[in-house]
Design a protein that fits this description.
alpha+beta; Nuclear Transport Factor 2, Chain: A; 3 helices; 6 strands
Length: 167
């Protein structure tokens, strides 16, 4: 009976040790994953800030540099007919827009996620449009974007903007 009791104590101690080691290793992985996710979100947030600054400064050349080099890039605006595919179409539309207005976004909600070298972002907030005379209009706006990582830089592959209904 005493021998059986010794085995029970040894088994109990081993189980406690295994649970502790298991919990510790999961915590370590979780911390590393959290750090990686935080770093990733910081990169995408920087890409959003750059997007915002280039549109606000009406800098077509640098704005276009934010896009991937593929011919499959796409921008969908919030108005009927505003669907532009490929660098030439997008650049032509941006030149027309930036000729008399600047754009920026007051990003109230930003959701970011990724899978490998592909990321998506959802923004809900306001678009701020400023014309040549300095008059500003602010209205509800949201967009979804898909970015791909190329040469350690996040590049836009798709922008889809919308004015939410009910506003």
């Amino acid at each position: 009976m005493k021998q059986f009791r010794k085995y029970k104590i040894a088994i109990f101690a081993l189980m406690c040790f295994m649970i502790t080691v298991s919990a510790y290793s999961k915590t370590g992985k979780s911390d590393k994953k959290q750090e990686a996710d935080a770093a990733f979100k910081k990169e995408i947030t920087s890409a959003l800030e750059l997007w915002n600054n280039m549109a606000k400064n009406r800098d077509v050349t640098h704005f276009m540099d934010l896009f991937d080099t593929t011919g499959e890039i796409m921008v969908v605006g919030s108005d009927s007919g505003e669907v532009f595919k490929g660098r030439d179409q997008i650049e032509g539309w941006m030149k027309m827009l930036f000729a008399h207005r600047s754009f920026s976004w007051d990003m109230k909600r930003i959701d970011i996620d990724h899978n490998g070298n592909t990321a998506w972002v959802f923004m809900d907030g306001y678009m701020i449009v400023t014309n040549d005379k300095g008059k500003t209009a602010k209205f509800p706006y949201r967009f979804t974007g898909i970015l791909v990582k190329a040469r350690n830089t996040w590049k836009w592959r798709l922008f889809d903007g919308a004015v939410p209904g009910g506003h």
